[in-house]
Amino acid sequence: MKAKTKSLIVGGVAITHPDRVISKTNRITKGELAEYYAGVASVLLPRIVRRPLSLLRCPSGIGGGCFYQRNPGRGLAPDVQPFEFNHRGNRHEYLYIEDEKGLLELIQMGAIEIHPWGARIDSIDFPDRLIFDLDPAPNVPFAALKLAAEDLRRRLIERGLESVLKCTGGKGLHVTVLLKSQNKWAVVKSFAASVAQEMVADAPETYIATMSKAKRKGKIFIDYFRNEYTATAIADYAVRARQGAPVALPLEWKELKDLKAADQFTMKEALQRLKKKKQDPFSHQKAQILPTPT
Prior knowledge:
By secondary structure, the chain is an alpha+beta fold. The chain contains 6 helices and 15 strands.
């Protein structure tokens, strides 16, 4: 019988229990997860460093008692930092990282999913991204979801905004616009709401923009609430805590046509894409300015 490895050094961080299986599907181990995050660090880190983070930690593996964490708590690793701020008269303390060591220490802590804020800690009141989460009801075919993404993209172009598509690694798609940090959260959310509500008005049988799950049957929820203070969204290239460990992967719009599912990409495939393309869809996207309301 092969002896279990006690620890694995990845990016200067000791990953304990690297042989622990975190996903029974494909038998993915904690060590492989750490090596994956090290492999995508060059494109992942610019999206998550110096941002408050929410983590989905699964110390025993996927399906084994996972829980969300955004507050530092006790026993933080040395490169996982606390961030204190005040909001509406209350003091809050979240966590953030600065570099690859901090990222890998999160994985050592049992984190699988990483959800950053839409703003950095040094400009916390001014988001630098606009996100629409297209969330289909269970009975909505994936082809309809792809049409919704194209519809949303067209509406953004009409407003002078270019966007990037992303598989969430779950059942939905994200459409993201990079912004210059000059508008406060309320302005960004109001803009997102106006686009979502326009889509609902034009096709009420297809779209919904309210959180009521009872009304979502057969519809696509245009979740613009990701553009809210303290709201987070799954990071680009982050792994999801689902069997098989699918990846939330940014895509070129031309890839939407042949896309089969929002959770079709594995860690191996994500790494292969980076090696092949050397750039990711965000690399040619510039920060933009929201249009002035008319």
